[in-house]
C-alpha cells in the first residue's frame, strides 16, 4: 500500500507542477507541444535504448511474458473491434484510443511499484518489452501511414494543348517520317501499389525515433558482450528526463481551458477506462491462474496489467495531432482509479 501511494503521490506532485506552469503561462503557449516533441524525439528514444539494452531477453519466453502478451493482445483486439468495427472511427483515432486502453505506465509507476511491492523490478520487464517491441511499432506504422503528407510542388505552367487530328509519335533520327511505326520493347513490370505503400510505411516507421531507440537497444541486448557504461551514460542521462517531462506535459495539458472540441467522446472514454482499469487486470489474473502462476508471479502480472494509461500516449497524441482530449482524460481517470484497483489486487493476491 505504501509503495502504491508513494509512487502515485510523486507522479501527482510533478503533474501538479506542470498544471501550475501551464496555468501561469510560465513557459508560453507552445510549451506543451515543444516538450512533447522533446520527449518523443529525444528523451524517450534514449530511455528505451538504455532500458532494452539492459533487459534480459530470456524473459520474453517466460509464462509471465505469455500472460502479458495474451491479455494485452485481447484488450487491443476488443478496442479495435468496438472503435473501428462498431463505431467506424478513423484508423489514426482508433490507434491512439487503443494505446490508451493497452499501453500501461510501466516506466513511471510500474518500476517503483514492482520494486516496493514485489522486491524485484523483473515483473515490469515483460510489459515494457511487449509495449516497446510489439505495440509501439504497430501503432506508429499506422499513425505514420495516416500522417498528412507534404504537398508536392505546384505546376509552373499549363501543358500545351494537343493539336487537332491524329498524331504520330516522334521518330528517331535518320528514320523517314512516313515509315511504319515500330513497337517499343515492353518495359519491365512496375511495382504493385501495395508493395510501394508497404515500402513507404516501413521507411517511415524505421525513421520513427522511438522505434529506432527500441531496435538499437534490442540489438545491444542481443550482443554477447555488455556495452560499456561510458557509451550508454549520455543516453541514460537524457533518457532520465523522459518521465518528468512527460508528466509536466500532462499537467500543462490539464491547465488548458476546456472547450467543446477539447472534450473526448464520452463513450470512447468509458470504453478506454473500462478496458484499462477493469478488463485488463481481470484478464491477466485469469490467464495467469489458468497457466499455473501463483503467489508473487500472479500478483506481478495482475498488478502490471492494472497500471494506468501511460502519459506517453498523450505525447504521441500531441505529436500526431489525434485524440488529445481522450489521451489526456484517460491518463487522469485511470491514474485516479489505479489506487483502489491496485489496493484491491494486493489485498486479494498479496
From TrEMBL:
The chain crosses the membrane at residues 34-53, 65-87, 121-143, 206-225, 231-257, 269-291, 297-318, 330-349. One of its GO terms (biological process) is transmembrane transport. The keyword DNA repair does not apply. The keyword Membrane applies. It is a multi-pass membrane protein. Keywords: Cell membrane, Membrane, Transmembrane, Transmembrane helix, Transport. Residues 150-184 have a biased composition (Pro residues). It is found in: Membrane. Residues 149-190 are annotated as: Disordered. InterPro entries: Mem_transp_PIN-like. GO terms for cellular component: membrane. PANTHER family: AUXIN EFFLUX CARRIER FAMILY PROTEIN (PTHR36838), SLR1864 PROTEIN (PTHR36838:SF1). This is Transporter. It comes from Cellulomonas cellasea DSM 20118. The lineage of its organism: Bacteria, Bacillati, Actinomycetota, Actinomycetes, Micrococcales.
